[in-house]
Amino acid sequence: MSREAEKAERRARFRRGHLSEYYAAFALMLKGYRIVARRYRVTGGEIDLIARRGDLVAIVEVKARTSLAAAMDAVGPMARRRIENAADHWLRTQRDHAAISLRFDIVAVLPRKWPMHVPNAWTAR
């Protein structure tokens, strides 16, 4: 693959990722969540979406894949650890952190289907 083709592929993946996050955020808002952060980054990790409904905060990893199983498999132990580290950092910055219930979700964005929300996809270590 040529260098230009690699750059074009990288740009296409970047755009697909942003669009998938937009679809996921929209689906969550229709379910009553408020998006409080997008692409939250700290040194130890990154969170695609932070969604809140009352005292429940969903730390959401968005995956654009061809199947739900592929999306679930794409969030391995290392990715979970990075997401959990970022979630710990975000939670420490919240004034009402003691009242917050935190959960880790996945939203799978599948071709020609509504985004699939998987609440409590994993529990923190």
Mind sketching the topology for me?
Elements: H1 3-30, E1 34-42, E2 45-53, E3 56-64, H2 68-73, H3 77-92, E4 101-109, E5 116-122
Parallel strand pairs: 3-4
Antiparallel strand pairs: 1-2, 2-3, 4-5
**Unreliable stretches covering 5 or more consecutive residues:** none
Cα-to-Cα separation, first versus last residue: 40 Å
The whole-number mean of residue pLDDT values reads 94
Count of strand segments: 5
CATH architectural label: 3-Layer(aba) Sandwich
Structural class: alpha+beta
From the spread of the alpha carbons, the general shape counts as: globular
Beta-strand residue percentage: 25-35%
Count of separate structural domains: 1
Organism: Fulvimarina uroteuthidis
Family: Belongs to the UPF0102 family.
Protein name: UPF0102 protein U0C82_14000
InterPro entries: Restrct_endonuc-II-like, tRNA_endonuc-like_dom_sf, UPF0102_YraN-like
